[in-house]
Amino acid sequence: MRAPVDRIALGLAALGRPAYINLGRDGALPPVRDVDSMRAATFAVLDDAYAAGVRHVDVARSYGRSEEFLAGWLAERGHADVEVSSKWGYAYVGDWRLDADVHEVKEHSAARFATQWAETLTLLGDRVGLYQVHSLTVDSPLFTDEPLIEALAELSANGVAVGFSTSGPAQAAAIERAFALEVAGRPVFSAVQSTWNVLEQSAGPALAAAHAAGKRVLVKETLANGRLAVQAPKTVLDIASAHGSGPDAVAVAAVLAQDWVDTAVIGPASPGQLEANLRATTLELGAADRDALAGLAEDPGAYWRHRSSLAWD
């Protein structure tokens, strides 16, 4: 049986660029968010995560310089046992500005895939074991783009696992449609990374079905973009108090308590946040705790409207 820390991946969404929508990120980052300072902050979190036993790092083309920072850290440290997953589909256009009008632009096309896969390869080479479509929705043009589907199938045939991430209130429909895609009788996708946390539980049944079918299931936004760390409901705070932990550890533990979750992605902005998140790996939620947390689920539409209202800081 895998140890809890083996089910944790470190996501660099909050560290690879100066602005993001995570609550509670402000005081955790360097006072000046220039490239060198953010690189140093990324290395510090990566070092502590590796020392704690984390061996999976999740990045994306749209996470600013996350791939570049990770590639530099891997080269300097020489760690050969770190699994890397990345994503394509969004391009970072924020120009390293906190006040950019637009930080990322989405495009699911064969041209965008070819360009971004080449960029990822240049930085990370054969270290990438999982390459994912970023934020696939049920109405994505990908589903009718035969050249793109063929290109993804070719990547899979060449030994790189191909997956997709999902967002929005219709995640379940996107999951089911994506896993039905086949080329020459072979599934295109073998993994999914979806939002699931105690406030947004709607994708759970679809993810459980995917896991039962042999697909790899990763869960992102385990802290609801920081809401469960800095604006946690009383139920979460009470459980945290009873276990002598923080609310973030309870939120991550609730994800790990789902037997269909292969990997829980956390996104700390500092070594301190990392340490607090990783306390989840030693936290055992009882049946009463799990039942109480299950009752916190919000209407998916309301949850995603709230998420859309969060400002990039």
Radius of gyration: 18 Å
Q: Point out poorly predicted stretches.
A: none
Element string (H = helix, E = strand)? EHEHEEEHEHEHEEEHEHHHEHHH
Give helix % range.
25-40%
* Sheet with most strands: strand arrangement: 1-2-3-6-7-10-11-12
Distance between the termini: 40 Å
What structural class do you assign from the helix and strand content? alpha/beta
Shape call: globular
Total E-strand runs = 12
Instruction: Describe the largest sheet.
Output: 8 strands, parallel, barrel
Tally the helices: what do you get? Answer: 12
Mean pLDDT comes to 97
Strand content: 15-25%
Describe the 3D structure.
With 313 residues, this protein is an alpha/beta fold. 40% of the residues lie in helices and 17% in strands. It contains twelve helices and twelve strands. It has helices at 35-51, 66-77, 110-124, 146-157, 171-179, 204-212, 227-230, 234-243, 247-256, 271-278, 287-294, 300-309, and strands at residues 8-11, 56-58, 83-88, 90-92, 104-106, 128-136, 161-166, 182-183, 186-187, 191-195, 216-220, 263-266. The strands form three sheets. An eight-stranded parallel beta barrel has the order 1-2-3-6-7-10-11-12, surrounded by six helices. The chain has a two-stranded antiparallel ribbon with strand order 4-5. Strands 8-9 form a two-stranded antiparallel ribbon. The radius of gyration is 18 Å and the shape is globular. 45% of the residues are buried. The mean pLDDT is 97.
